[in-house]
Design brief:
Strands 3-2-6-7-8-9 form a six-stranded antiparallel sheet, with no helix packed on it. A five-stranded mixed sheet has the order 4-5-1-11-10, with no helix packed on it. It is globular and about 55 Å long. A hairpin with a 2-residue loop joins strand 4 and strand 5. It contains one helix and eleven strands; from the N terminus they run αβββββββββββ. The protein has one domain. It has 149 residues and is mainly β. The N and C termini lie far apart (81 Å).
Length: 149
Amino acid sequence: MRSYLFTFLFALSLISCSSTDEEIDCSAQLFPVNLFYLEIIDSDGNNLLSNQTYDPEQIEVTFNNVVVSTVQQVDDDTFIIVFFNGIQSASPVNLRVTLGEDEIDEMQLAFTVEELPCRKIYTVQNVIYNDEELEVQTEGDDQKVTIVK
């Protein structure tokens, strides 16, 4: 009877161990990243990246002289995507947005970072673009601001 009790208690202790006690192998899975988009439009709502007002080859967002962006077409519109993993600093941060040789804008991002076992989730709280506060729009896990030029 005593050996049954010991076996039962031992089995119960194994079952009650949670997976949080084990290290998670993050290399075995792909984890989605949340994205931050910049949309640039004119007063009529025309996307100025899609219609080639700005040359995508000249556009870049930099943090401490490191490019943290890419220009990407999504459906019929073109956006600037900012990658937070290139921003190794506490919030808020100042970014330089180069739209051409003669047009360089300033953007300040305030964001929070949620640390998960295999990734970080960045949530933009506030955007100031050329001294104007912009509304942050959330679409699923991604966020976007619209800049009117």
